[in-house]
């Protein structure tokens, strides 16, 4: 199927621990992490590379999760081919989770529980693919009878991690990571400016808050962002900024200093953990903590998915719980006391 998206999963004892299959042949039977790489994810090797990094982050949960990557096979090259592949993803991956044969809608509660099995990771252009899937998915949901409010409620059960992306998804609960040193986009610098407006809502040291309040006064007076740039240039920091977006869903931005040593901060490879959980040799101290936050977020979502598989009632994904967890992870870094990797997983608020 030339130029059509294919899927692949991490499977032990297969060649390169990779097994390719068509979208039409996949069924969600347990928690799944669905991975959309950047525009360059056009080969099995590229897509498998993303899965290997995430595999290093989720540790013991690997046995309990389907780790699935989307290989574009250059199917993003023209609009009509991309639209066909978006439709295939929606009809074959997502619609079975909310309907019978794509025609009869499930109850809202059942649809919510089913979609809570899905965690999405998207890098760069992958977020745009996810957004197009979301739009088509909502069209199909509307067609089989879900109201707009029901659609939003159902979609809020998908948790998405966006890494180095130029856009966001406003329908899912999400974690977003973009460095001010990602030279592909300027979003990271803009998010740092946002910090100045949310100082009283961000967990940070009294010293940082005092310094940033002084910077805010200067920025407001002179309309010059160089002061905030000097702040994150000379410190190792990662702040947790939670927002409510226009569809009433919540997102968290990790507002950080430089992530990779001597490499573009756009690259995801530096987030890899080693066999003993040591950080990748690309990672700065901040990059190490970004990797810890990624690990914590994936595991937090997987644990919730597993609990939902064991209960009759929906256990909602708690963005407040994730926020508290991530604040605990980054606290040593933000207090200038960065330490060897160690944290406990919090399951509830």
Question: What does this protein look like?
Answer:
The chain is α/β, with parallel strands linked by helices and 349 residues long. It has one domain (6-207, 209-334). It has helices at 44-58, 79-94, 108-115, 126-143, 148-155, 187-195, 206-222, 226-233, 285-310, 319-334; strands at 6-10, 18-21, 32-36, 66-71, 99-100, 104-105, 118-123, 159-163, 173-177, 238-244, 250-256. The strands form 2 sheets. It has a 9-stranded mixed sheet, with helices on both faces. It has a two-stranded antiparallel ribbon with strand order 5-6. The chain is globular.
User: Radius of gyration in whole Å, from Cα?
Assistant: 20 Å
Structural class estimated from helices and strands: alpha/beta
Give a count of the beta strands, DSSP E runs of length 2 or more.
11
Spatially, the strands of the biggest sheet line up as: 2-1-4-3-7-8-9-11-10
Kindly report how far apart the N and C termini lie. Answer: 46 Å
What ranges have pLDDT less than 50 throughout 5 or more consecutive residues? 343-349
What percent strand? 15-25%
- The percent of residues in helical segments reads 40-55%
What's the mean pLDDT score? 91
Structure annotation, total helices: 10
Shape, per Cα inertia axes:
globular
Write the H/E string, N to C.
EEEHEHEEHEHHEEHHHEEHH
Number of discrete domains: 1
Q: Major β-sheet, in short?
A: 9 strands, mixed
């Amino acid at each position: 199927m030339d130029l059509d998206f294919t899927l692949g999963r991490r499977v032990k004892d297969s060649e390169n621990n990779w097994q390719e299959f068509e979208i039409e042949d996949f069924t969600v039977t347990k928690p799944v992490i669905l991975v959309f790489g950047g525009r360059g994810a056009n080969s099995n090797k590229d897509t498998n590379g993303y899965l290997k990094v995430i595999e290093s982050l989720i540790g013991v949960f690997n046995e309990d999760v389907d780790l699935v990557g989307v290989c574009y096979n250059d199917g993003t090259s023209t609009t009509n081919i991309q639209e066909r592949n978006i439709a295939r993803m929606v009809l074959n991956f997502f619609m079975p989770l909310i309907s019978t044969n794509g025609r009869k809608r499930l109850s809202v509660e059942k649809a919510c529980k089913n979609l809570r099995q899905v965690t999405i990771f998207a890098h760069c252009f992958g977020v745009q693919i996810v957004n197009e899937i979301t739009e088509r998915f909502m069209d199909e949901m509307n067609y089989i009878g879900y109201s707009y409010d029901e659609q939003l409620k159902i979609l809020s059960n998908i948790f998405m991690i966006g890494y180095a992306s130029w856009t966001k998804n406003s329908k899912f609960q999400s974690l977003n990571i973009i460095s001010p040193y990602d030279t592909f986009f300027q979003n990271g610098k803009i998010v740092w400016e946002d910090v100045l407006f949310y100082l009283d809502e961000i967990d940070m040291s009294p010293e940082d808050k005092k310094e940033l309040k002084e910077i805010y006064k200067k920025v407001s007076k002179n309309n010059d962002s160089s002061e905030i740039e000097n702040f994150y240039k000379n410190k190792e920091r990662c702040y947790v900024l939670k927002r409510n977006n226009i569809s009433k869903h919540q997102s968290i931005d990790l507002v950080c200093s430089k992530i990779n040593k001597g490499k573009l901060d756009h690259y995801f490879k530096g987030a890899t953990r080693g066999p003993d959980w040591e950080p990748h040799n690309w990672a700065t101290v901040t990059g190490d903590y970004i990797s810890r936050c990624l690990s914590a977020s994936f595991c937090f979502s997987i644990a919730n998915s597993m609990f939902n598989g064991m209960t009759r009632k929906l256990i909602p994904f708690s963005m407040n719980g994730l926020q508290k967890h991530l604040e605990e992870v980054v606290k040593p870094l933000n207090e200038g006391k960065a330490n060897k990797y160690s944290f406990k997983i919090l399951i509830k608020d």
